[in-house]
Amino acid sequence: MQSWITEELCEVGLGDERLNQRYAVLLERLENQPSLSIPGSCKGWAETQAAYRFLSNPKVSREKILFPHIQATKQRMKSHPVVLCVEDTTFINFEGQRETPGLGPHTSTLEYGYFLHPLLAMTPEKLCLGTLHTHTWIRDNKFGKRYERAKKPIEEKESQRWIDGYRETCNIQKQMKDTRLVYIADRESDIYELFVEGITGEANWLIRAVRDRKTLETNKIREELANETSLGSLTLKLSHRKKRKRREANLKIFAKQLSLLGPNRYRLGRLPNVTVTAILAIEENPPAGEEPIDWLLITDMEVNSLEEALEKLQWYSCRWQIEIFFFTLKSGCQIEKLQLETLGRLESAVALYMIVAWRLLYIKMLHKKLPEISCDFIFEKEEWQVIYFIINKKPPPKTPPLLSEMVNMLAKLGGYLNRKNDSPPGIKTLWRGIQRARDLVSGYMAAKNMPETS
């Protein structure tokens, strides 16, 4: 059993020691072979049957599987002065399993599955510490028109999940005396009720605005900021994306504390006014044919200088890590190919893969942020020694290599060429390398323990 799994599951409590042991074994199998099916990850038919029995056991659920991981995440958080609690939604598409009870459609009937809404903890250096909370739901076929949904109270809308996520962050903040928590979410969380909740909440919050709301001065947020003097500028190196070329962008930074006018709600009347800080980072003179970078952030934190504004922008940029987490779950762990016949089994299996996806993301970012630490912080002795021998064709050293060296060796197993101008290995290359490494280590251990033939 890998030592990290023992530490991660130290607070597991499924009500049966055999279930606890099966949980640890199954997690190790899935982490060793993240992109294979459950039968492909397990060793033989008997172990595969045991895995299916585990997922079908009424004592096993998504919440109980994630409980020890959440407790371990909270322990990791306590060693950091600031932790960002990032929340977002993804749809897990089980299109081929429409007969599975409990699944539902996406915005159209072309996709069929359920929504997953996790809350992840990460440092301002983008090191993912783990999952803190998850919410799942199934959308009814009768989703309703927009004007019909607008008449419902927030508690009856899907939007309530953002407020619940912030409340969970506040609950955790009460347990963290020496760690400051900041709740971060994308434009879908631009909900006025969330601002109202944040007036008395224990945790700070920072969200990206999609609405140019009215202020008490009857202006809009952007009008207020346009009358302010710029705090300074920021130069960003933008990576290549589907609709954007690689380039440098020069952004002007504006910030102002202002009071928002509470909107009217159906049957509830006008919501209270709230005082917030608006931060605007907008690109001047973008290249022809390119959309300008335009970030409008709303927060409860004060911003009185360029340094404070840049800090909040940098924190928000960490939100992209949850997209990488979703990519790892779907493309690396292949969760949308699971075929487990019931919603409960699917949710339990996805919870297991969430821990696997966190581990992959943790290794990648730890290598990037702390490349000079010893690789035995992450890898077992047999693992790094076998990988070193396979890549370098010579006996491993007595002293473990640096983590940066070991991750590069893993990446080479996953197809990374490590040429002079190559970018650092990505998460996809890393999980391929880990999968090959586990096979090599298993083969080495089997050969080592094989009795001599007569």
SSE arrangement:
Layout: H1 3-8, H2 17-32, H3 38-41, H4 45-56, H5 62-77, E1 82-87, E2 90-93, E3 104-105, E4 112-122, E5 128-137, H6 146-150, H7 160-173, E6 180-185, H8 192-200, E7 204-208, H9 221-226, E8 232-238, E9 247-260, E10 264-265, E11 269-270, E12 274-283, E13 294-299, H10 306-317, H11 320-332, H12 343-369, H13 381-392, H14 403-413, H15 427-449
Parallel strand pairs: 1-6, 6-7
Antiparallel strand pairs: 1-4, 2-4, 3-4, 4-5, 7-13, 8-9, 9-12, 10-11, 12-13
Helix pairs in contact: 5-12, 7-8, 11-12, 11-15, 13-14, 13-15, 14-15
Provide an overview of this structure:
41% of the residues lie in helices and 19% in strands. By secondary structure, it is an alpha+beta fold. The chain folds into 2 domains: 86-341, Transposase Inhibitor Protein From Tn5, Chain A, domain 1, CATH 3.90.350.10; 370-449, Transferase Inhibitor Protein From Tn5, Chain (Transferase Inhibitor Protein From Tn5, Chain A, domain2, Orthogonal Bundle). Strands 1, 2, 3, 4, 5, 6, 7, 8, 9, 12 and 13 form an 11-stranded mixed sheet that branches. A two-stranded antiparallel ribbon has the order 10-11. Helix 11 (320-332) packs across helix 12 (343-369), helix 13 crosses helix 15 (427-449) and helix 14 crosses helix 15 (427-449). It is globular.
Output the keywords:
single chain, eleven-stranded mixed beta sheet, Transposase Inhibitor Protein From Tn5, Chain A, domain 1, 41% helix, two-stranded antiparallel sheet, alpha+beta, Transferase Inhibitor Protein From Tn5, Chain A, domain2, 13 strands, 454 residues
